[in-house]
Amino acid sequence: MAEHNVQRHALLIGASEYDIPGANLPVVKEDIKILRRALESSHYGVQELGTKQSELATRNRIRRIVRRFCAEANENATLLLYFSGHGIHYNNRDYLIPSDGFLDYPTNLEEYLVPVDLSEVFNECKARTVLFFVDACRSKPELLCPSCSKELFSEKWAEGKLDPVTDREYAIVFSCGAGHVSRFREDGRFSFFTKALAGVLSAEHPAQNFGDVSRALQEHLDELTGEGDRQIVRIRAEFSLEPELMKRVICDGPVLSEGQMESADTTKADEPPPCITAGSLLERPDDYPSQKVHACALLADLFGSTEFRLKHSEDKAVRKVVHHNRIVSDIIAANHGVVVKYVGDRVMGVFGGERCEKQAVSTGVAIIRRLGEVNASEGLHFPDDLNTSIGVKSGRVCRIRYANCSVEDYVGFPVDVAGRLCSLAGIGQLVCDDDTFERIQFPDSSWSYSDAVERFVEGLDEPLSVRLVVPVGHSSKGDLIPLSGFTRPIPEAAKERLKSARQFYREKRFDDALRLYREILDVDRGNFEANIRCVEIILHRVASNETNRFKILDEVIHRYLCIAKQIRPESSRVWRLLGWAYYLQAVDARDDSLLSTALERAKLAMSCAQEYMDRNGEVETGILLALILRELGRSDETKRADSLAKANEYCADVGSQIVDFLHRTHSDHLAIQALVRADLGEEPDVVEKMLAEARDTDPRNPRVHEALAEFYRTRGQARI
Length: 720
Prior knowledge:
Elements: E1 7-14, H1 27-41, E2 45-49, H2 59-71, E3 77-84, E4 86-90, E5 93-97, E6 114-115, H3 119-123, E7 129-135, H4 141-144, E8 169-174, H5 192-201, H6 210-225, E9 234-237, H7 242-247, H8 258-265, E10 275-277, H9 278-283, H10 288-291, E11 293-302, H11 305-311, H12 314-334, E12 338-343, E13 346-352, H13 356-377, E14 388-401, E15 408-411, H14 413-424, E16 429-433, H15 434-438, E17 447-449, E18 453-455, E19 464-471, H16 492-506, H17 510-523, H18 528-541, H19 549-567, H20 572-589, H21 592-611, H22 615-635, H23 640-679, H24 684-697, H25 702-719
Parallel strand pairs: 1-2, 1-3, 3-7, 7-8, 10-14, 14-16
Antiparallel strand pairs: 4-5, 5-6, 8-9, 11-13, 11-14, 12-13, 14-15, 16-19, 17-19, 18-19
Helix pairs in contact: 1-5, 5-6, 12-13, 16-17, 17-18, 18-19, 18-20, 19-20, 20-21, 20-22, 21-22, 22-23, 23-24, 23-25, 24-25
């Protein structure tokens, strides 16, 4: 049990009533009642704001009471702040919406909000431990403010920029992560996060230190929300103080008898998952679910080994594989993982226990770093250097033993997906799904990781939200997760609609075509043709004076083109359409950064068109590049001359290609038409005249010369 000479203070702020129509949250008052009882049982002194009609949680009141609350604490205090209400992400920051929050206009919103990042206040505070629990992000932004939803991103909630808080143990605990909302019971009795938090902070719960409280909080939250979409707690902390913070006692546990204390002291560490034989599984398949346990699978693949094997001796290739596999397996074992198997140049490891996700990702990062050190110390350079790609996925797995093999195997969905994610990773990169990453409540400060992005993974119909992780300062490059392009079968439900949609598109019945293509995407989100056609129809129809054109273009980019580029990253058409969408947005918003993005996408389109010898793509992209460069020249006088000169070069190149293309296609048309007319019995003189015109149009066209040779050969045979 914790000692009570430690001073504990809690400030509970609830924004239950809002000036924003339809935004009231009656559940907030119930949350504060529940949490207050739990905190008082753990000897917290509790203050409240927002539970009385006369003292609503306005912006000024929140800022004033937080500053006073922190200023009055001494150096031995543990401070717990809590906010329940609405929250949004805006301009790379997370904000709480006070009762008098104003969201009518999408500019200068921070003037009406309260930042989650209260580092300025906390840095002036003397308390050794400051914890901020945020039960917010209750609704999608567009429900709070339809007119400015494009400015508010729930997809980035809990990922906002935080300034450092120094010389104290500090963490912000969000009720949910990016892309999710904090849910509550329909009857308004409680919010799931706050109910779970109250349960684990109560003196009746055995968890006492912050680390145990955090783990128990997620477990209790999972129990409350059930089997559906998980609400994952997101913790942002001062990395350098993580060990001390995790051990910091923040609440009282139950009083244990001597016998209970002895039992607690002798509790065994996590044991490996139970093993089931293949025979018993086949005989009693109903036993399978009960044998599964939560674990995290890691798969490391020697990068470029197949190509190396083709170009080098077998002995050299085998030595490289063995060198890689030995390093990987040693590090897995050293980090308390189980080396499950070796499959050629791949090594699979499994980690168990409450912190299995962090162990697996830490191990993967350590493997990448160690291989880099080996390359440097042994002077290994391409193609002899050792590089790996790693996939990590957690979930429920089963440990299997086969009768004719002494080695045990692990099977389950996480193992399969880890292999797919491994294929998605580049050189010296680790890719894990976002669900796995969110379970790591304290990402290590030695990691560098991307935001969560959606990528199609082979074998799954829906895209998976994934993150890229690499060691900080490591030589592995690539701050983007590679775009996965693989052949996807078209579902039966989409095939007939696809035929009809194509027919409508050919007949220029664009409303009907758009409706059907959207229906196709409802059952086959990754259908490349449907995504591209939707974009083309929308871009063709959107008027320059349409008031919501920027929002429509946002939909084009994020709903359709971001999916299409994952399916066919080599498509010039995809990058060109992205360039057009950003260009139109830039023109509307007069935004040079969007114009630069449009230029970057257009250059990618040109590169793809040239690589795949797409003449038509080169012409269309050249026109787009000229437009973008002209606009850049108009918006920035310092770039005017250079931009317009480059635009003129593209125009000249496009003009040349168009003339060449027209001559070639007109020549082809005359040649084939002449041969068809000859077969139909046309007079030879007429046919010869058409072939002569084709030759004059494009003298270097080999198809014209082949047609002439065939014509004269046929005439010669006819005379004989």
